[in-house]
Design brief:
2 domains, 2 strands, LysM_dom_sf, single chain, 69% helix, coiled coil
């Protein structure tokens, strides 16, 4: 390869100022230097060697005075230069496409990693919210237990209820034997303690003394209701 360029350089020195140089030699040399500068020798060594060979043959013919025949090889060298230029452009596009594809894959990988990280954070936040939500009812239940229970002041009779059943309810007295308290507090609407009617609203006496409770239990023992 160096020997061939030496021939080309020698021709350039001998005929550099001559006016009868072949028409296409300068253009062929210019194109060959251009593709060499773009790295054609390393990318396409066979094609580049063929280009240099065409230039060398043209110069040898020119040294023999066969300018017209030499131009045929210079034209051939021009064609080879154009072909190498096209191949280099295609190779550059291919390399650009490979690089772009690699960059896109890298961006996609980064996007997937970001999505996974976001998903993980959202799951952690959701777990925290769920744990906090479970704690709220527990706190509310504890607070309700600490609050004094609000006792009912009235009771609306339901179908099938009796005074002992009403007295046994937890929001009334929680004691079946205290039904006489209800009977005495509602004598204005209950004539017979064995007969009460759905829809009646009964007063529930509160602030009772021990004597009130004891007397009610004695009365209940003396008069057992069904």
């Amino acid at each position: 390869m160096l020997k061939q360029f030496a021939v080309i350089a020698a021709v350039a020195l001998v005929f550099g100022c001559a006016s009868d140089l072949p028409r296409y030699r300068v253009e062929a040399l210019t194109r060959s230097y251009a593709v060499k500068g773009r790295g054609a020798e390393g990318l396409f060594p066979q094609e580049y060697a063929s280009l240099v060979e065409a230039l060398t043959r043209g110069d040898r013919l020119m040294l023999k005075g066969e300018g017209e025949e030499a131009d045929r090889y210079y034209l051939l060298a021009l064609g080879k230069s154009d072909l190498i230029t096209q191949m280099m452009d295609e190779e550059r596009k291919r390399q650009d496409a490979i690089r772009q594809e690699a960059e896109e894959k890298q961006r996609e990988t980064e996007r997937q990693q970001a999505l996974q990280e976001l998903k993980r954070k959202l799951e952690v936040e959701r777990d925290i919210r769920e744990r906090e939500a479970r704690k709220i009812p527990e706190k509310s239940a504890v607070a309700r237990e600490k609050e004094p229970r609000q006792l009912a002041q009235y009771h609306t009779v339901k179908r099938g209820e009796t005074l002992p059943q009403i007295a046994a309810q937890s929001d009334v007295y929680g004691d079946v034997s205290l039904w006489p308290l209800l009977y005495r507090a509602n004598r204005d609407q209950i004539r017979d303690p064995r007969r009460i009617w759905p829809g009646q609203v009964l007063r529930i006496p509160r602030n009772l003394t021990r004597e009130d409770l004891a007397e009610a239990r004695r009365y209940a023992q003396e008069r057992i209701l069904p």
